Amino acid sequence: MTTGILLLHAFPLDADMWDVQVEGLADVAPVVAVNLPGFGGTAVAPVDAGAWMDAAADEAEAALRGTGIDQVVVCGLSMGGYVAFSFLRRHPERVVGLVLANTKAGADDDAAKQRRTDLAERLRAEGSDFLVASPPPLLSGSAPAGLVERVKAIIGRQPAESIAQASLAMGARVDSTPDLAGIAVPTLVVTSTGDTLIPPEATKPMADQIPDATLAVIEGAGHLSSLEAPDEFNRLLAEHYRRCTS
What we know:
By secondary structure, this protein is α/β, with parallel strands linked by helices. It has ten helices and six strands; from the N terminus they run βαβαβαβααααβαβαα. Helix 3 (79-90) links the parallel strand 3 and strand 4. The model has no long low-confidence stretch (mean pLDDT 97). Helix content is 44%, strand content 14%.
């Protein structure tokens, strides 16, 4: 039985954010980085916002077919973490391990939902140029200029409608907190001290609620810890993969 690593990307990027992981972990395991619906040139999911996360999880599972990979360690960062929860609920037979990076289990409160709706409406009215010019704080203030430009370029490739739908989907996602106590696969929770979008205090509690979970804190990196601290992220992911498959 072949066990791989499934990488689920953050908002509003695509699977290209995982290039360093795909290359750096190739000697560790088969790695599949999927584009979530509407991103990276894929079709928008023909579902309402409340069903988007499940549709994304199903598309991720479909991407494994034909690869020879039977089971996976699922790694989701930010929005990818929300999809990872859906993947675990819908395809538990595929999952031998879980990595929840720079994400959280809880649903949005009303204020956050309104911000998601406002963003979607602006994207549909104006396009995405404003978001490319001034993206959310995905990186720390000390991130190299080249990395900032790379992130902007990835955002700029995504259709405004795809970003809008994903924004609404995040606002409509279910609360996964009740699932935490029942997670029965080895789980790594990753946060980073420079993350202001989903700060450590929002991520760390998952490690206390998931049985036998491991917590890793990456110093200095911002929200996209896999991009800003790729060597450390790869080391953590490789170690966790070996833990899950030993």
